[in-house]
Amino acid sequence: MPYCVHCGVELDPSVHRCPLCGTVVLDPAAPAAEDGPPFFPTRPARVEPVSRRAAALLATSMLASVSVCCALLNLFLKPQYRWYLFVAGAAAMLWVWFVLPLLAKRWVPLWVRLTADVGAVAAYVALIALALDGWGWFFGLAVPVLALAAAVVCALSWLMRKGHSVLTTVTLVLAAVGIFCLGAEACGDLYFHGEWAPGWSLIVTVSCFGLCVPLLVVRRVPSLREEVRRRFHF
Ligand SMILES: [Zn+2]
């Protein structure tokens, strides 16, 4: 027999309100009414994550839309130059970088992705060279720097293929930055002056390797490594 939660009077099981004080009778143990609203929503309200194909479609339409708008604007703004090609080229490069990985159905090896990424940058730089008639600097400067960047990133990804601690990753990335800067300045010097005279890159490289040394020491000494791990929550 139910009782009123407010005044404690004994209630008939069929009443929905206390006849004495008017408090609504709610019996959680009573079977839910067939026609009444359910206590809990029957449909899960979870929002499904966006599918990769939908994200790729959205990104593609955004890049294509920007390219088309700029092409139309080019008809009126400085029509003597086809500047919209730079925007379209940048959009194509971004497409290769960000949308192509979304469309891949299975895992793609990192070197394949890097080759595609560097190829996209090379194609874009080639487009600029074509527009400015600068094949000299393209082959003399851009191609060597891009090839160096690709080689450094490939070597870095090969060294980190098994996944390493944060300390090792930071050390490797610093070393890679140092090597790349040294090589990039060498490419520039050889192109512009015909001889290698390291300047700013040497400072960057020495600083990077100077930072690597204490990291290597920390990595070698277990007590130091544990201390760093505790303090920085690695
Ligand atoms: Zn009551």
Give a quick account of the main beta sheet: strands, pairing sense, barrel closure.
none
Question: How many strands appear in the DSSP assignment?
Answer: 0
* Ligands, ions, cofactors: zinc ion
Radius of gyration from the alpha-carbon trace, in angstroms: 33 Å
Distance between the termini: 61 Å
List low-confidence stretches.
Answer: none
How many helical stretches? Answer: 7
The percent of residues in helical segments reads 55-70%
Q: What percentage of the residues does DSSP assign to strands (E)?
A: under 5%
* CA-based shape: elongated
Query: Strand-and-helix sequence, N→C?
Result: HHHHHHH
Write down the overall mean pLDDT: 85
Q: Helix- and strand-based class?
A: mainly alpha
Notes on the structure:
- It is a single chain.
- The model has no long low-confidence stretch (mean pLDDT 85).
- 64% of the residues lie in helices and 0% in strands.
- It has helices at 52-74, 84-103, 110-132, 135-159, 166-192, 200-220, 222-232.
- The chain is elongated.
- The chain has 234 residues and is mainly α.
- Residues 4, 6-7, 9, 18, 20-21, 23 line the site of zinc ion (ZN).
Helices and strands in order, then pairings?
Blueprint: H1 52-74, H2 84-103, H3 110-132, H4 135-159, H5 166-192, H6 200-220, H7 222-232
Bound molecules: zinc ion.
